[in-house]
């Protein structure tokens, strides 16, 4: 039997928490032979509900679940964790933009970044889901100076999965036969879902779609605004698909992608004209527990403009939290 991996999930009593914990405990995150210990963080006022979730986790009698502990203190919840999925924060409601959440949620990620810095494993893998995810991940990274920067990532995978699914529907290609999709930039409507290198069953995606006007005028904004469309339809933000994307992101990071491209928000190394440390969505491949950016993608004028647009938004978000990080 393998040694259990310690996984922290914050906001564990919330709706994404309710969708993700049972799948992690079932082996969807790290494999069907890997025991896990769940360390669950939520606010003091959510502890009663969190205990109810733990009762349900226990009632599933998951063979891989080697322990579950609740806490309302990040320094307790993050102690010695190998993986931290930071979900806990306020979601937006109808009519709100993600930028409206920045003020409400930034402080959370400063506190949690510091706690990770002090008590987590030195190779902890951190995924920030709570919005605005890129800038929250940037805040957590900057608040954890003793941890390697590459430990911190933001979730672009929901956008990636939405982008692939919509191309699958448009072209009639099964999702499994779509490769090399790339979502650049911020997890917000400014993101750039770039299909130029993608393939549909081996055929170049632009050819398979054969409708550039649809791509530029309909598809790009449909991917970018999908979160708002879900809120409009459900009255609540996406939860099961967000949980699924978080599992995809961490699983691929830990277990590898076999050469397949996935989109991840990672601290920039300066490539593609993105200043260092900006938490930016880029296509990556993963192997041996490490991600590598796909390098050398040619940029046409349209792509340069889209990347600059989403970068500008991230730089504005960073400027808005600069005081918090002093
Ligand atoms: N990056 C992405 O693709 C997506 C991100 N999200 C974001 O995920 C976040 C969570 O969404 P939901 O689960 O639907 O919200 P929710 O409101 O159902 O749950 C949030 C949970 O976080 C807890 N929480 C709040 N502050 C906390 C803190 N300081 N420490 C620990 N726990 C804390 C709350 O008590 C609550 O239990 C939101 O920010 C939402 O916008 C949602 C969908 C997709
Ligand atoms: O839109 C929201 O607020 C939730 C989210 O991030 C998404 O579904 O993409």
UniProtKB/TrEMBL annotation:
Name of the protein: Malate dehydrogenase
Is NAD tagged as a keyword? yes
EC number(s) for this protein?
1.1.1.37
Quote the function comment for this protein.
Catalyzes the reversible oxidation of malate to oxaloacetate.
- In this chain, NAD(+) is annotated as bound at 11-17, 42, 105, 112, 129-131
Which one GO biological process term can you cite for this protein? Answer: malate metabolic process
Q: Which SUPFAM superfamilies match?
A: LDH C-terminal domain-like (SSF56327), NAD(P)-binding Rossmann-fold domains (SSF51735)
Where the record annotates domain Lactate/malate dehydrogenase N-terminal, the positions are 5-152
List residues binding substrate.
92, 98, 131, 162
């Amino acid at each position: 039997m393998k040694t259990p991996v310690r996984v922290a999930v914050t906001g564990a009593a919330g709706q994404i928490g309710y969708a993700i914990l049972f799948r992690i405990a079932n082996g969807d995150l790290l494999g069907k032979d890997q025991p896990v210990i769940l360390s669950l963080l939520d606010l003091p006022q959510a502890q009663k509900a969190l205990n109810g979730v733990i009762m349900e986790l226990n009632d599933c009698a998951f063979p891989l679940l080697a322990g579950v502990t609740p806490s309302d203190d990040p320094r307790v919840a993050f102690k010695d964790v190998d993986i931290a999925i930071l979900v806990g924060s306020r979601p937006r409601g109808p009519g709100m933009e993600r930028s409206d959440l920045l003020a409400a949620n930034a402080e959370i990620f400063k506190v949690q970044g510091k706690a990770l810095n002090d008590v987590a494993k030195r190779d902890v893998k951190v995924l920030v889901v709570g919005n605005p995810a890129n800038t929250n991940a940037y805040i957590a990274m900057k608040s954890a100076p003793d941890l390697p920067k590459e430990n911190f990532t933001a979730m672009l995978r929901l956008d990636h999965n939405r982008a692939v699914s919509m191309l699958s529907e448009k072209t009639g290609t099964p999702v499994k036969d779509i490769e090399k999709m790339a979502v650049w930039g911020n997890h917000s409507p400014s993101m750039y879902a770039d299909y130029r290198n993608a393939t549909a069953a081996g055929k170049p995606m632009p050819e398979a779609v054969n409708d550039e006007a649809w791509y530029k005028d309909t598809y790009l904004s449909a991917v970018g605004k999908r979160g708002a469309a879900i809120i409009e339809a459900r009255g609540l933000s996406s939860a099961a698909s967000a949980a699924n994307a978080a599992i995809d992101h961490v699983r691929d990071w830990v277990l590898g992608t076999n050469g397949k491209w996935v989109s991840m928000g990672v601290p920039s190394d300066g490539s593609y004209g993105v200043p260092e440390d900006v938490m930016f969505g880029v296509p990556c491949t993963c192997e041996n527990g490490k991600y590598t950016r796909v390098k050398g993608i040619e940029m046409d004028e349209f792509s340069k403009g889209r990347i600059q647009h989403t970068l500008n938004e991230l730089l504005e978000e960073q400027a808005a939290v600069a005081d918090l990080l002093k």
